[in-house]
Amino acid sequence: MSEHDAGQEVLRLQGLKKRYNVGKPTEVEVLHGLDLRLQRQDFAALVGASGSGKSTLLNLIGLLDQPTAGELFLLGEPTSAMDDARRTALRGSAIGFVFQFHHLIQAFTALENVLMPLMVAGGKPTREQVERARGLLAEVGLAGLEQRKPDQLSGGQQQRVAVARALVSRPALLLADEPTGNLDSTSAAEVFQLFRSFNREFGCAVLLVTHDPRLSAQCDRTVTLVDGRIASDTRASSPAG
Length: 241
Description:
It contains eight helices and ten strands. The protein has 241 residues and is an alpha/beta fold. It has a single domain (3-105, 170-235), classed as Rossmann fold, CATH 3.40.50. The radius of gyration is 18 Å and the shape is globular.
């Protein structure tokens, strides 16, 4: 990662709003004009009580849903007017997702699961892509387990496969939704450190949704949502690690 890349803006929200049931008596606004920026070096937690709008916001940032008003820029590109094909392509190339449940395909090996985003985007993976996937599995501590199916791996190992899968397309932004919620404390700490290392090595911005205050305390920045508004956006006095 070059010094120039380190300061690159990955995500910018301008006046982002989201309403449901627009035009109906049950219309409700869930997000009320959010402004937020993430740079490549950012390692941020998104926290808030249940119902604060975290899931809605994550779906918008992940280009899985569209805002009612405002604009979302991803890598400097405005996304609100994009057609579905461009939105899907940008999501696939620029964003990695890790969820609480790893969503691995049981019939596929660990290596095939990691390669899945590349296969969806471009068909048969190239030799270089296969080697990249093998390298990621090694980096997450699964060298030698490439041919195992998910049911032959522990929960922590399966989540590591999911982390490798999220990073195989070399995304600029990693969205992690309660990624350690299903793991024991040791596995959770290991997965968190994986996010840390990829953030530092590849300049992959991380936005981590968590209910765990111990986890958010280890992030460099904490964005708190309250009733669909950003109540605070604080940075740690010195980056955790």
